[in-house]
Amino acid sequence: VQEGTLMGTAIGTCFGYWLGASCFFFALAYFCDTKISAIEVLSLCGYGLFGTLLCMFLSTLLIASASNLFFYATWGVLGVSSAVRMGYIFLDRTAVRKQGVTVAAIVASVHLLFILYLKFVYHKTYEAAAKINPIHVR
């Protein structure tokens, strides 16, 4: 991150995901005839990020020096539960079951892959900064 802080870039990435993924999910819902409004998609995607927030918070701040096992455990519990909930709502509101399963799988997969993206990009950067300058990072 050359021009700005890591926190500013992370916030921009999360808001970008929230708006971008919501638009993608809404377009996907439109093409698969899912009865869901844009506000509902924005709300679902925003509330789904709470599991991401908890997962990253717990794995970064509370257990900073632990192995990746703790991250994957919280990802499996918190990330998967929010992704399944988002997918279920899309599945429930789609008239054709086959299309609903497709929409639900895509929504849940994109959400879970975003958590992994955050882990491998920002968490690794945070750990590298903590090794270089432990006083200012923690």
Describe this structure in words.
The model has no long low-confidence stretch (mean pLDDT 84). Helix 1 runs antiparallel to helix 4 (97-132) and helix 2 runs antiparallel to helix 3 (68-92). The protein has 138 residues and is mostly helical. Helix content is 84%, strand content 0%. It is elongated, with a radius of gyration of 17 Å.
- As a percent range, the share of strand residues is under 5%
The total of beta strands comes to 0
Q: Give the overall pLDDT as a whole number.
A: 84
Q: Outline the low-pLDDT stretches.
A: none
In short:
By secondary structure, the chain is mainly α. It has helices at 6-31, 38-62, 68-92, 97-132, 134-137. It is elongated and about 55 Å long.
Write the layout of secondary structure elements.
Blueprint (H helix, E strand, L loop, with lengths): L5 H26 L6 H25 L5 H25 L4 H36 L1 H4 L1
Helix pairs in contact: 1-2, 1-4, 2-3, 2-4, 3-4
Task: Give the tags.
138 residues; 5 helices
